[in-house]
């Protein structure tokens, strides 16, 4: 699609807030409705598992991952540089000075973990800080919590990353997304010699977007776009105006470490000050124990909970729009996703069923890097690489 056509669509979209199907060949498709199955549990084996021992010195937490993915981390930083430097030639000097200076108020253990990644990769600390902050502002996602007829919950999400960050005309995909697919890892977090929780991460990243605490809760985080949003919060943090704010992905990790129940996790996710607005999607260990916590920086604006009295109350689906708000038509993952969940039905809720919903366009798009599937009772946690080849919507 030419730049002019894309800009025209964006302009028209500003006044269109009702569902409008995308034009061919980008038309939405529900894999379930087509009778297809794209789920293969063996594909989850493509993502390696690592262990982070929280009792070990923090600077060693990501040492093995950083060693094995040193080149990929450096490649990603280079892609970021290639995008920024032509626009702001002095950007690297600013990053090296300004973001390195942030280390004086980045708390432990994240401070030492970032230093550890920098030491292993040989990258300047400022660039590793930038790499970690990056995930606070450029993520669009789809999360689902769905209840099986037996009352057990399946929690899943697509992570879409790299919006407007360099289009590769040869590969027909976003440059950042291409690199990130090579950097996805699973992590078992250990405390006192026992498994505490599970996450998946991009190598060298010390926060958490998704996590499972066995028999307790599951959580995913979707970015929320607001005028006082991630860039605003980041700027305040960089300028030292709000040094006490939690990075959104650090907060997820802290809750996985500290909370011992669904209710405790919900309370922590709902109340603590964070750097970026976010939707926290939370699932528990009991029937109908699921919620969407719509957060601004200082408070919870909306709490949406799974409703046993609603005929469609067996699932929650969250993209990057407030519940009850119509998305713009060029970024409508809600209507196709809800349609496909309706086709699937509650009896179809499983890793296979939810994976096929999330593998349906437009939930699957050119930004999608992976799908994660979680079940809190069994502790089953699968990460599947995702890619949308051919004619597929850009986000």
UniProtKB/TrEMBL annotation:
The Acid ceramidase N-terminal domain, residue ranges: 46-102
Domain Choloylglycine hydrolase/NAAA C-terminal: 141-289
Origin species: Bursaphelenchus okinawaensis
Catalytic residues (UniProt): 141 (nucleophile)
Signal peptide annotation: 1-18
Cellular location(s): Lysosome; Secreted
Protein name: Acid ceramidase
Family: Belongs to the acid ceramidase family.
Gene Ontology MF terms in the entry: fatty acid amide hydrolase activity; N-acylsphingosine amidohydrolase activity
Top-level division of the source organism's lineage: Eukaryota
Pathway membership, UniProt: Sphingolipid metabolism; Lipid metabolism; sphingolipid metabolism
Enzyme Commission number: 3.5.1.23
Top EC class, one word: hydrolase
Keywords in alphabetical order: Disulfide bond, Glycoprotein, Hydrolase, Lipid metabolism, Lysosome, Secreted, Signal, Sphingolipid metabolism
Main location: other
One CC-aspect GO term: extracellular region
GO terms under biological process: fatty acid metabolic process; sphingolipid metabolic process
């Amino acid at each position: 699609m030419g730049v002019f056509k894309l800009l025209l669509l964006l302009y028209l979209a500003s006044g269109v807030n009702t569902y409008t199907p995308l034009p061919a060949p980008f038309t939405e498709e529900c894999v379930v409705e087509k009778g297809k199955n794209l789920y293969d549990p063996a594909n989850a084996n493509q993502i390696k598992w690592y262990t982070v021992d929280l009792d070990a010195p923090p600077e060693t937490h990501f040492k093995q991952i950083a060693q094995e993915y040193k080149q990929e981390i450096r490649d990603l930083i280079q892609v970021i540089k290639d995008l920024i430097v032509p626009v702001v030639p002095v950007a690297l000097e600013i990053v090296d000075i300004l973001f390195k200076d942030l280390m004086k108020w980045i708390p432990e253990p994240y401070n030492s973990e970032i230093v550890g990644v920098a030491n292993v990769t040989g990258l300047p600390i400022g660039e590793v800080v930038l790499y970690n902050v990056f995930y606070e502002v450029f993520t669009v996602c789809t999360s689902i919590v769905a209840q099986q007829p037996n009352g057990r919950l399946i929690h899943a999400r697509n992570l879409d990353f790299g919006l407007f960050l360099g289009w590769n005309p040869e590969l027909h995909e976003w440059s950042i997304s291409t690199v990130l697919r090579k950097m996805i890892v699973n992590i078992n977090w250990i405390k006192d010699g026992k498994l505490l929780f599970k996450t998946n991460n991009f190598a060298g990243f010390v926060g958490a977007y998704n996590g499972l605490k066995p028999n307790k809760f599951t959580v995913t985080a979707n970015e929320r776009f607001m005028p006082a949003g991630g860039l605003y919060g980041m700027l305040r943090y960089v300028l030292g105006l709000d040094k006490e704010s939690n990075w959104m992905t650090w907060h997820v990790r802290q809750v996985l470490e500290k909370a011992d129940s669904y209710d405790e996790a919900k309370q922590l996710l709902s109340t603590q000050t964070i750097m970026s607005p976010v939707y926290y999607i939370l699932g528990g260990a009991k029937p109908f124990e699921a919620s969407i916590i719509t957060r601004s920086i200082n408070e919870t604006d909306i709490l949406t909970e799974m409703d046993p009295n609603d005929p469609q109350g067996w699932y929650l689906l969250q993209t990057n729009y407030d519940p009850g708000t119509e998305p713009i038509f060029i970024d409508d993952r809600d209507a196709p996703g809800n349609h496909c969940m309706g086709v699937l039905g509650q009896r179809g809720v499983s890793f296979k069923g939810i994976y096929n919903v999330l593998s349906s366009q437009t939930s699957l798009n050119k930004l999608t890097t992976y799908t994660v599937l979680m079940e809190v009772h069994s502790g089953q946690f699968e990460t599947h690489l995702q890619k949308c080849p051919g004619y597929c919507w850009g986000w």
